[in-house]
Every structure is written in structure tokens, then in C-alpha cells.
Amino acid sequence: MACAGCGTGVDGKPSGCKSNGGCSTGGCNRLNVFDWLSNIPLGDSLAPFDIIEVSFNNGSRKDFFRNVTKQLFDKGEMVTVEGVSGFDVGTVSLTGELVKLQMKKRRAEDTPEVKKVLRRSTNDDLQRMMDNKAREKEALIKSRALARNLGLEMKLAEVEIQADGRKATFFYTADDRVDFRELIKVYASEFRAKVEMRQIGARQEAGKVGGIGSCGRELCCSTWLSDFKSVNTTAARYQNLSINQAKLSGQCGRLKCCLNYELDTYLDALKDFPEDADTIETAAGVAHLQKRDIFKSLMWYSFEGSNKQYPLTIARAKEIRLLNRQGVKPEDLKPVEVVTAKPKETDLGYADVVGLISLKSLEKTVQKRKQKDKDKQKQQKATEQRQAQGQPKNEAPKAAQKQDRPQQQERKPKQESRPQQQQKQPGNQPKQGREQQGRPEQQQQAGNRQQGPKQQGQGPSSGQTGQGKQDKRPPRHKHKPHHPNKNNNPEKDK
Asked: What is the pTM of this model?
């Protein structure tokens, strides 16, 4: 499995994927092994293990080599090792004490015949390796065509060319034994290299080709699974899976390896179920076991000639089996009621808070719009009513005008009181007198008290007495002053 990125570390060494040399995570290689002993220091008297594990072709092939140069190699470094009549270039996949466990697992012995590590890969070694690796796809196409021309029933899966180009390994699958003696001669003359034919199984082929499984992940055989165990249909029966070859088979055409992953868990759960309860006898007949549900701890039975199934608990099945041994047949199975409906979801008190928070400016705008809409609706209703009564459309705004008239009438007294306030100013007395001479009689009576000596528009410098002022007033029978005045007293005039 590749890592997330392809960045550069603190020391400038690439620490990501894409096989760019120096991958410290090892995620670019297939069948990668995590070195959990790398950070554990060794004693001063102990020397590090001198054999390292090197992977080739992105981890599809791994081998062990002795580090005779005594250099410290990090995981992910490119090294040049001994090959067949030449050299090969690979990636360091494992170092240290964990290599001993890997050699024991693969049954590799620490003998003097172990190949050696020559040096760290130089630029010339890497360039030569890349040139030869670029030939592999073309060589695979040609090799398939040559095998088809010879009429050999074999399927070539992969071609691996050594870094120096002196050796080519052909991996193939075949159902029967193949005589490829003539084919080797054709390959040697065509590719100008030493030819090695290696037969692999269908699962190894799927691991080399790679792909995505039905679970949505990369194939286990191409990422981490190195040893293949036999898988049979018994594992599917223990897990209550339908025996469908299309669903149980992987991309290799064999049973899926993942059928063995949970088999031990199912076997442990099945220990609580009775083994001799395949059939039980009741008064209604003989009931046969259909399936065991390890998740709900139930055993499903059905009678002959009926498709209805009855779920029983493990304790009830053991009880009925014990009664049958004593020669007693119970009248009823007493099945358990299984609720298949989904549980109701509890109400978490969700509250819709949309619209609870608003701005004042927006609220004012909305209120204005609503008021305008209401006014328009009232006007439309009024026009519709008048049209229904036969009135012309020109009279439609009269109702609105009548509503505005009281406001205008209230403003008039304020306007009439303005000249009275201006009369108190001495500079405007003559002008105000001329304006008040043409006013109606009622207005002059209302302002009699304030305008008494100034209705003629003459100031105090005119030399007229109070009697002259009194002669210009309206008759007494038409006006009743609000307050008594000294000029209105007739005895004083005489």
C-alpha cells in the first residue's frame, strides 16, 4: 500500500512513494514488512546482522544478500547486488534483527553461498536498470506471440529483466505440463539474454498483476499476503454463506482467501450450539435444523413439507433434545418472536432556527413592503366595489382624499395663528393691519384682544386717542369681548 504523499524529508531524502529511491516508509513495495525493531538499540557487544533483505520489481520478488561492505543501509535505499553472470539493482526492504525471523519463515539458511551486496547504486547503475525495465512490456507482448505460434497452452503473466540485461525471467501459468525446450531457444535468440522459465499458480499471477477486489480494496495477494493457505467450501458452510461459485471466487478463479480470515471466530461461536440437534421430534412431527445464527444465538427449524421456519433458543433446543432421549415428544416448539423491524429513532429535539435571527434594517424594509401590499389590496377592492356599483374609475381616489382632509384641517389653525404671532413684533405692525382689514369679521372677533389697538395699522406715534380706536370696532351687540377692557367702559368716555 502506497503512502499519502511524496515529499522530501529534513535531510533532503525523498520520504514518499513512486519508487523515487530512498523511500523511508517502504509503501511503494508490495508485501512490505514493518520493521518494529528498527528503533530498539542493540548492546555495544552485539554487531548488527550482516544480511539484509532486498526487493525487486516493486516488491514482487525478494531475496537475501550479505552485507560484506559493512555499510549501514537504510530502508528504501537502492543497492547493487550480485546477479546471474552480472549485477542487479534492488531496494532495501528490511535490515537488522528482523531479517533473522524472515529467513526462518522462508526457510532460508545462513550459508556462505548467500549472494553479496556490491555497493550503493550509482547513477550509471540506475540508468541502465531503467533502460532494461522499459523493455519488459514489449518483451511480454513478443513472448506471448511466440508462444502462440508454437502452439503452447500457457499464459505468460510477467517478464522480469535483470538490471544489466543479461538475464530474463518469464513467469507463466499452465494447467498441464508444457514442453518449452524449443521456446527457450527462440526466446534466447530474440532477446539476447539468458532465459529462465518459472511456473506460478493462479493466485501468484493475480498478486503480480494486481487489481481491486469485491470489497473495494487492493487484492491481499498483491499488498501483504505472502503465504497462501488452502480454502474449501467448508469454510463457507460454517459461516452460513450460500454456495455460489461466482460470489465465492476471486479474480484468480479460486476461492477467496478472505474466507479463512473469520473462520476461527465462527468456530469459537459454534461451540455453544449442540452438535446432535440436527433433528428434533415433536407431537406435530420431526423438525429439521436449517441454520444457526451465531449473532442472535438462535437455531432455525422447519417441519417436512413446510417452508415456515421456527427460531429456537439454544437452551430450548437442548431441552427438547433431552426430552427426546427420554422418549418424550413435546407438543409445542415454543419458538421465539424475532423482531425484524428497525428500531424507532429517538427524537433529539431538533429545532429549526432559520429566521430567528434577523437585522432591524431588513425588518423595517419587510414591514414597509407589507404595508404597501395591504394598501394596494385595499385600493383594488375599493375600485372593484365601485365598478360593481357603476361608478366611474376617476372617483376611485376620493376615499383616500377624504381620509387626508381632517389632517389638512387640523393644520389650518396653526397657519392662521402665525400672523398673530408676527403682530407682536413692532416692525411688522402696518403690514399686518392691512392684511387683517380684508379678513372676515369672525376672524377679527377671535383676535380682538390681541389686535385691539393695532387694527388700523397705526403705531403709538400717530397721536390718536383711545376713543378713535374704539370707534373703529364692530357694534357691541355683535361682539362680546372675552375679557373686560377699560376702553369699553361708557362712563369713562363721557
From this structure: 0.56
